[in-house]
Each structure stands twice: as C-alpha cells, then as structure tokens.
C-alpha cells in the first residue's frame, strides 16, 4: 500500500507574514493527520521560514524548482545542494507553468531530476496535457513523452526516489477538475508504462493528481486505485482547505 502524499504548491504567492500565518495554521491541525504524508512548497525566499517553523513537526517542505546545474556561474538559479542545506525534502520539477513560461524541455527537466536525486531530494515530476492536446486525443502521447524524458535518461530505477504528479493543464487554476475516471485512466496509463519496465517500481511510486483539487473533490479523486494523493495549488493557500485535503488523504490510506 502506498502512503498518500498531499503537497502544497504555493506558486508565486505569499509574503513573510502570510507564510508565517499559513504555516502556523497547518501546524495547528497537523496532529489530526495520521496516515498521509504532508508537504508544503513555498517560494524560495520563504524556505528559511519553513526550516525554522516546521522543525520537529510532521510537515515536510520543498521547492518549486531547482537548477539543472550543480553550482557556478548561473545567475538567479538555486542548486539542489542549497535546497538540501535548507532542509528541503522535495523539489517540484517540470511544472507546466515552467514548461510554458520558462521554455523548459524534457531534457532540462531530466537534468533537474538527476540533480535532485543526487542531493537526496525527492523530485515531484509533473506531467500533463493541454486542453487542445486532450481534445485531439493526444493525452497519452503527451504524458508518455513527459515521463520518458526521465525514464530514458535515468532508467526506471530513478522512480524509486521520485514522485509523479499528473496535472492536466486545463484543470490548473480553472476550477475545472478532471473527473475521477479521467484522472484514474491517465494514472493507470502512467503506472502501466513504468510497470512495463519494472513492476516493483510501478507498485511503489506515488502518482499524485493536481488541478483544482479542493476539499469537496479530494476524497473521491484520491479514492481511485492509482491516485496516491494531490499536488495542490490554490487550496494550499488556506490552512483549513489544505488540512481538509490532507484528511481526504488520510481517509484513503
Ligand atoms: P490548482 O490547485 O490551483 O489548480 O493548481 C494545481 C497545480 O498547478 C499544483 O502544482
């Protein structure tokens, strides 16, 4: 049985004051979460607050990105070693917003994946199709390409130290959620693609759903056989909503 994971992707939101409030709110309720693993991914500048405020709690934290390079003359980038230095557990990799706004390719994302694993971080690899791609029947082709970027570069064993997040682009921040059946179909496809190389890794790897997951739809989504939790955007910015989704994770443990 895979442990459910609920991870909050705060994106470019929050401030010192908001981060403090939100982390305090999540801390206040985390005692009620018994089975699910819980993580928050604030913007880089607030990771120090996560390190300070989450010490000794069951709440893990991570980054929303990292550099594909180990160190050196890469202005503005943040390395895996630096994130490890701040106590990060996770690093989100290949989010569709980075693929779109920062022209990230599957090759770059595979390099980021390797950097994360090399430094003991757990990469959360995001895959997902646009509405146009779904409507033209290309969903499986697109998510396979995103997955294969890492599979081909690093082999199936790399997914022993990683998490996958299926995030249909058309469901992100739109309030339109994939139906549990739509999400389950893609999750099963992704797990099957890994199983073709290693059943053991396929049984182990957590595959999260992301895209307008909210307290009112989380339990049904996470209840699907191949959905092992959620990567939460908007609803992760309110402690009560985020904790309610964590409880849905618990209910499916
Ligand atoms: P929303 O939950 O706001 O749709 O965002 C999902 C997401 O992109 C998480 O990475």
What is the second-level CATH architecture?
Alpha-Beta Barrel
- Say which molecules are bound, naming each kind only once: 1,3-dihydroxyacetonephosphate
Kindly name the structural category. Answer: alpha/beta
Let me know the CATH homologous superfamily.
Aldolase class I
| Number of structurally distinct domains | 1
- Number of helical regions: 11
Average predicted local confidence, pLDDT? 97
Computed Rg: 17 Å
Percent of residues in helical segments? 40-55%
CATH topology: TIM Barrel
Shape: globular
Strand fraction: 5-15%
Give helix and strand order, one letter per element, not per position.
EHEHEHEHHEHHEHHEHEH
Strand order of the largest sheet: 7-6-5-4-3-2-1-8
- Main β-sheet: number of strands, strand sense, barrel status? 8 strands, parallel
């Amino acid at each position: 049985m895979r442990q459910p994971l609920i991870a909050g992707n705060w994106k470019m939101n929050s401030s010192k004051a908001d981060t403090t409030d939100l982390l305090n709110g999540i801390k206040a309720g985390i005692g009620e979460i018994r089975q699910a693993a819980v993580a928050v991914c604030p913007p880089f500048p607030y990771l120090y607050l996560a390190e300070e405020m989450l010490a000794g709690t069951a709440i893990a934290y991570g980054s929303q990105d990292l550099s594909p390079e180990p160190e050196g003359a890469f202005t503005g980038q943040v390395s895996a070693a630096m994130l490890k230095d701040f106590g990060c557990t996770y690093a989100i990799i290949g989010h569709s917003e980075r693929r779109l706004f920062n022209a990230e390719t599957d090759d770059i994302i595979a390099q980021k994946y390797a950097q994360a694993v090399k430094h003991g971080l757990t990469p959360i690899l995001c895959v997902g199709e646009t509405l146009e791609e779904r409507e033209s029947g290309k969903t499986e082709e697109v998510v396979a390409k995103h997955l294969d970027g890492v599979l081909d570069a690093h082999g199936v064993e790399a997914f022993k130290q990683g998490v996958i997040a299926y995030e249909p682009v058309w469901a992100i921040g739109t309030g339109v959620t994939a139906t549990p059946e739509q999400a389950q179909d893609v999750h099963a496809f992704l797990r099957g693609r890994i199983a073709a190389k290693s059943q053991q890794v396929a049984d182990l790897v957590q595959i999260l759903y992301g895209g307008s997951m909210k307290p009112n739809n989380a339990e049904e989504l996470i209840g699907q056989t191949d959905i092992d939790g959620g990567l939460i955007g908007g609803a992760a910015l309110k402690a009560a909503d985020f904790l309610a989704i964590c409880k849905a994770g618990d209910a499916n443990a």
